[in-house]
TrEMBL record:
Organism: Streptomyces caledonius
Name the record gives this protein: DsbA family protein
InterPro entries xref list: Rv2466c-like, Thioredoxin-like_sf
Pfam families xref list: Rv2466c-like
């Protein structure tokens, strides 16, 4: 593939926290879209811990626990890997982490992070950043870049796609199970359609089922 062909692909910016099962579903959809449309996903980290740090008292105890050291660990390792080894490792490491955390139901353990690093050929030493705030400023900047585009009353994932007057960011789409093939293409086409509509903000309905990692 030539540099010209790469530039012709439609860029899609995608913000994720490895903890979020709904972001995981959407990210797998975007990988399907890459197969059927000329798009290129650019992966960025955001953090549910950062998103909720000023409202922890309002959250259930189990969720507060998840947003503690256990929740910081995966995203800190991803941002450290990105800073040390380049943007191209971000999506690969996310896939290795998410497969274990969600599909294999192992959760965001240190063992899972170590396995994911090994799978994508990254140094085991990166695991030390799970407990380090060295790159927290970069992490927060990446998080804020996504949130500033879409607004405060959202979570993860955030995607930014071409719209009528420049890029438009949305929370979602939230979908289960992951659309494949032509179904993935139709959802993508619809996303571009609403993004091209000036003044469009939201379509929403109550979720009646949880994520299905098929």
């Amino acid at each position: 593939m030539t540099d010209t062909q790469v530039r012709e692909k439609t860029p899609v910016d995608f913000w994720f926290d490895p903890l979020c099962p709904w972001a995981w579903m959407t990210s797998r959809w975007m990988l399907e879209v890459e197969k059927v449309r000329d798009v290129e996903v650019r992966w960025h980290v955001m953090s549910l811990a950062v998103l909720n740090e000023n409202k922890l008292d309002e959250l259930p105890e189990t969720y507060r626990e998840l947003l503690g050291p256990k929740g910081w660990a995966p995203v800190r390792v991803v941002i450290a890997a990105q800073q040390k080894h380049g943007d191209e490792v971000t999506g690969k490491l996310y896939t290795a982490l998410g497969t274990r955390i969600h599909n294999e139901e192992k959760g965001p353990t240190r063992e899972v992070i170590a396995e994911a690093l090994a799978e994508v050929g990254l140094p085991a030493e990166l695991l030390a950043y799970a407990d380090s705030d060295e790159y927290d400023e970069v992490l927060r900047a990446s998080h804020n870049n996504g949130i500033d585009r879409v607004g405060q009353e959202v979570g993860t994932p955030v995607i930014s796609v071409p719209g009528a007057e420049g890029d438009v960011a949305f929370f979602g789409p939230v979908v289960t199970p992951t659309p494949r093939g032509e179904a993935a293409a139709r959802l993508w086409d619809g996303t571009l359609l609403v993004a091209s509509t000036p003044g469009f903000y939201e379509i929403k309905r109550t979720r009646t089922q949880g994520p299905s990692f098929e």
